[in-house]
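User: Fold this; C-alpha cells only.

Assistant: Input:
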Amino acid sequence: MVKGISRRVVVVESPDQRFFEQAIFIVRNDAAGMGVTSRELVEEARRVAKNYAGGNKTSRRMGELNPAVYALMGAAAIGLVWLIASLI
C-alpha cells in the first residue's frame, strides 16, 4: 500500500561515480518555516555529503597501508616489549 505523503528532497550528484551515483537527503518539514532558502539547503547537503565521504584522513591513510606494513609494525612492537622486559 502506498501512503500519500509528499516529501521534499535534495539530490547531490557524486563527483566520482565509480561507487555512488548520488546522495539523497530528505528535507525536514519544519525547514521551510525556519527561513531556509533552497540554495542553503543544497549547499548544506553538499557540505554534509563531502564531510561524510571525506571521513577522517588519518584512518583512511591507515586503511590504505599494505598488510605487510601492519605485520612489520606488530613485530616491531613485540620486539620493543621484549627488549623492555629483558632490561627490567
